[in-house]
Structure formats: structure tokens, C-alpha cells
Amino acid sequence: MNEEQSSTAWYIGADKSEVGEAAILVGDPARIARIATHMSDVHFVPENRGLKTVTGTYAGKRVTVSAFGMGAPIATIVLHELFALGIRNFLRIGTAMAIPPAKIGDFVLADGALRADGTSNSYAPLGYPAIADFTLNTVLRKKLSGSSRPWHAGIYGTYDGFYTEMFGLSGKRREMIGALKQDIERMGLIGTDMETSALLVAARVLGARCSTLCVATVDAHSQAKIDDAAMEIAEAELFDIALSALTALPA
After folding, report:
1. Residue 242 sits in a domain of what CATH number?
2. What is the pTM of this model?
3. Residue 7, in any domain of the structure
4. 250/238 Cα distance (integer angstroms)
5. Is residue 1 part of a domain?
6. Are 157 and 181 in contact (CB under 8 A)?
7. Strand ranges (DSSP E) for 122-208?
8. Coil vs helix vs strand at 229
9. Which of 87, 99, 171, 237 is the most exposed place for a label (fewest CB within 10 A)?
10. What sign does the CA torsion over 187, 188, 193, 195 have?
């Protein structure tokens, strides 16, 4: 897809001078301030429509971090706008639901994703695969291998309905989701989220590199969640791996 470059992003509000050479996409806006402490020469883009963006220097390169909130529609808008500003390397980081053998607290890297979202269909037909960039994932594998934290790589499942497809609150809905999770495990998926398949398809169609690396924070079967202290440690490690991988990519 041939896209004209833009001087200013419509929704995130950044202009070309405010973004770096690569971008990290996060869900939780509160992560923007936390990841900023891992960089130097930090510039916070004025918040627009609730979307927060920061650009800083890491290992001598400028990296932009943008928060999209939740879900594939807004995540792809943020990616698409940053692409229009000239960025070609993207990594989504955050949280995912763990499918065995992945356990709470492990890192889960997406080699690809099952397209059960609706947004990716606006970029390519359903038969088009959602595949992570090989070069980016090669660098991420090297960084992960140097970490003491367990990690897994494989296929994510991306769904639009959190309470209808991923996390049942109670009753019949929880039973229905339980049956879906059995299918997910049978297919060998390693985690589920609400963004990865759309981001992988959008980036590849546009002509950019993209992958997802998350902390597994919820057990798919028991619905147990990671505690705050453990997440704080895992998130800090995630930030450094993401930043070091993106800044180590070849031009």
C-alpha cells in the first residue's frame, strides 16, 4: 500500500519533528511516564483525545512510545499515523492472557496471530496471514535469550470481545468462553490479546516491520492475575528489552 507521508498526525497530535526512528505501542497510558524514565532527552507530545505519546533517546537513537488504550481499531490508527510520519519499525508491548505452556510472569513473543479481530479485514482479506517481521523477531529472540525470565514464541489469538471471548465474568458466558479456550489450546496458541493480528496485518500491508512482545498476566484457565509487585519488575524488564531490540535493528 502506498501511503503519502503526513506532517502532523490527526489523532495522536504529533508532528514529524516529534517522533523518532522506531515506535513502541503500549495500551495503558500510564506506561508512557514509566517508560520515559528508561530514556534520555525526553519530549512529551501534548496529549490529544486521551492519547499520550513520548519520544526519547535510547542507545543513541530516538524512539517514540504511543499509548492506544485498548483494542485493534485505535491501535492500528496510532500505528498508521506514526507510519505516515515516517516510522517503519513498530513493537507492541504490554500484557496478554497466558495459554500453557506460558505461565503468569513469562514473556510471550508473537510469531504470528489468529485473525479473530475485525479491524484487520479493513487492510487485507481474511486469507492474508498475520505474520510478525522476521528481522525484528530475530533481534527480540537474541535479547530474550539473554534474559533470566522464561519466554515463549508462537501464535497469538486476537479477539475483539474481552468479556465475550476472553474473560468470562460468571455463569453461562464463562462456560462458553471455557469451550473457546479449549479450542485455543488445541490450536497451540500461546496467548490472547485484542490488538496483535490487526497490527501485524496493517504493518505488513503498509510496508513496516512489526511484532508483539508481552508479559503473560492472566492465566487463561484459572483467571488468576499477576500481582502488582511482580508486574512492576516484569514491566521494567520488558521496557529495556523492547528499547534495546528496536535500537539494535539494521537501518
Report:
1. 3.40.50.1580
2. 0.91
3. no
4. 21
5. no
6. no
7. 130-131, 151-159, 191-193
8. helix
9. 171
10. negative
Do residues 35 and 102 touch, judged by C-beta distance below 8 A? no
- Contact (Cβ atoms closer than 8 angstroms) between residue 143 and residue 59: no
Q: Using CA atoms, how far apart are residues 191 and 104, in angstroms rounded to an integer?
A: 11
Residues 6+ apart with CB under 8 A from 20: 55, 56, 61, 62, 63, 64, 87
Residue 3 in any domain: the answer is no
What is the distance between the alpha carbons of residues 78 and 102, in angstroms, rounded to a whole number?
Answer: 29
The residues, ordered by sequence, that sit 6+ positions from 131 with a Cβ below 8 Å of its Cβ are 111, 112, 200, 204
Domain count along the chain: 1
Q: Which amino acid is at 184?
A: I
pLDDT digits over 122-153, tens only?
999 999 999 999 999 999 999 999 999 999 99
How is residue 126 written as a grid cell? 481474511
Tens-digit pLDDT profile for residues 40-93 = 999 999 888 889 999 999 999 999 999 999 899 999 999 999 999 999 999 999
The helices-and-strands tally (H runs, E runs) of the chain is 6, 10
Q: Is residue 6 part of a domain?
A: no
Task: Indicate the SS3 state at residue 243.
Answer: helix
Distance between CA atoms of residues 38 and 15, nearest Å: 23
Instruction: Write out the H or E segment, with its range, that includes residue 94.
Output: strand 89-98
Say how many C-beta atoms besides its own lie within 10 A of residue 59's C-beta. 11
CB 55 within 8 A of CB 47: no
